[in-house]
Amino acid sequence: MKRRDLLVSMAAALGSGALAGVGFAAKGNQHLHEKGENSLISHHLKIQTASYLLREKPTHGLISLSPDGPPPVLYGRQGKPMALNVTNTLDEYTTIHWHGIRLPNEMDGVPYLTQLPLAQGDSFQYKFTPPDAGTHWYHPHCMTMTQIARGLTGVMVIKESIDPGFNDDQVINLRDFKLDKQDALRTPYTLRGAARSGTHGNVLTANWRQAPVYDHPTGGLVRLRLANTDTTRIYKLYLSSAKGEIIAWDGHPIEQSVPMPDENQLLILGPGQRVDIALKMPASEWQTISIFARKSGADRVMASLRAKGPNLKRTLAELKPLKPNPVSQPNLKQAKIHEFVFGWSPDGLAPNNGFCGTLGKTFWSINRKPWPGDNAKGTGPLATLEFGKSYILRLRNESPNLHPIHLHGLAFKPLRSNKRKLAANWTDTMLLLKDEIIDVALVADNRGDWAFHCHVIEHQKTGLAGFIRVA
Ligand code: C2O
Ligand code: CU
Ligand code: CU
Predict the structure, then answer these.
(1) Residue with the nearest Cα to atom 1 of ligand 1?
(2) How high is the pLDDT of residue 19?
(3) What are phi and psi of 422, to 5 degrees?
(4) 165 C-alpha vs ligand 2 centroid, how far in Å?
(5) 29 has a pLDDT exceeding 50
(6) Phi, psi at residue 6, to the nearest 5°?
(7) pLDDT by residue (tens digit) across 338-366?
(8) What's the rounded Cα separation, in Å, for the pair 284 and 34?
(9) Any ligand 1 atom below 6 A from CB of 271
(10) 408 CB under 6 A from ligand 1?
(11) Would you place residue 9 in the very low, low, confident or very high pLDDT band (cuts 50, 70, 90)?
């Protein structure tokens, strides 16, 4: 029996109450906390409900890792083992996925595919050694629609072993909330949205705040880490300063340069994507650099960086270039092509997502087959890749809607598009435009069943999902 089916049948055999005690949600590996293993970076994360002032009145029923603030930035180090000890205190199931981290499959946090969902009171230790430095993020992969919408998205920074020489780091986690007039959470999805480009929130935030201002040294060098962790919104961004350089894309140092965005040349960041910008702070104190999002009507300031203190007079040239992450280069001459068509599906049955939530409908498909659900038994992979071999994945969008297509566990590189020129930079999430066909290449060098889906969560939850097996 394949692991996926084993997990599915275990889940089926057990009632919801019994799941809480399943050994797969191991609380073991306690020895890791013993003294002497001090190289282990360990975080204890308690998933819980939270309240926060997102707008005028406190919003209750948010989900975070503390009762009164957004999920924190979690830090790790390239090549250093880390343990994320997750405890679920919610009265619903969850798992946590580490988006962008190339980790062992059983640590990937995908319900029924790599582990059973965590019931209330369950703990799970996610342990891995991140091979890649960069800006990644974390989010639930069970009850995804509502738990992400209620706030559970955080940035994970894996630091390089060689410090590039910034004065400061600034993480900006971009995401919306959907609130009513009382600032209470509204249902984050609509069937109309799910069948089209998704449902958008109405309160746009950076680190759960509206237009926050962050102080950084005057004339200093700041590493701005922008992450779009929204369920739906494709952010179109630009900065009020051109004194900077894009240094990483979706967690990986760039190999081909990407121009700094401005009002006429926006930076398009789909849900799940990240960009790192080396920024030079203004030379006089209290001057600011703002990050704008294009909105119909008026552009919106998402966050600002304000110069503070004496002028450090740094220059971008002083920064050490980021070392490339150890991603294997695909051999294009030998690469076999697998094609994936993303499109509509006839309105089918509700996917069987077990304890992980459903929107009750199917609108989307990969290769014309809608994902039958996280907990559907006997569902095979969309493709099986041979370990160590190179592949080209041909991603074909047959719909008028945009889809940020994400693959777990592996990094890939765009080769070409039928619509535009793409910079060949490693990524884990490729934004497909209307009717776009993009070829990406990878080496299948991480074994396991890797989730493959659209990161517009309403699409993911209504059929636009599946998995790719590396065996
Ligand atoms: Cu960021 Cu399967 O997701
Ligand atoms: Cu992921
Ligand atoms: Cu989509």
Answers:
(1) 99
(2) 43
(3) -110, 140
(4) 29
(5) no
(6) -60, -45
(7) 999 999 987 677 899 999 999 999 999 99
(8) 49
(9) no
(10) yes
(11) confident
What pLDDT digit, counting tens, does each position of 70-116 carry?
Answer: 999 999 999 999 999 999 999 999 999 999 999 999 999 999 999 99
Tokens at residue 441, please? Answer: 């290449």
Write down the number of H helices and E strands in the chain: 5, 29
Q: Which atom of ligand 1 sits closest to the CA of residue 110?
A: 2
Q: Does the CB atom of residue 459 touch ligand 1 within 6 A?
A: no
Q: Which whole number is the average pLDDT over 397-408?
A: 98
Query: DSSP labels for 296-353?
Result: SSS-EEEEEEEEESS-----GGGSPPPPPP-PPPP-TTTPEEEEEEEEEEEEEPPP--
Q: How far is the CA of 217 from the centre of ligand 2 (A)?
A: 34
pTM of the predicted model as reported, rounded to 2 decimal places: 0.94
Check pocket membership of 97 for ligand 1, CB cut-off 6 A: yes
- Is residue 31 scored above 90 in pLDDT? no
Cα–Cα distances in Å, from 224 out to 71, 169, 207, 239, 351? 18, 6, 13, 11, 39
> From CA 450, how far away is CA 103, in angstroms rounded?
11
Digit-coded pLDDT (tens) for 410-440 = 999 999 999 999 999 999 999 999 999 999 9
Q: Cβ(113) to ligand 1 under 6 A?
A: no
Residue whose CA is at the smallest distance from ligand 1 atom 2: 451
Give first-to-last CA distance, the chain, whole Å.
15
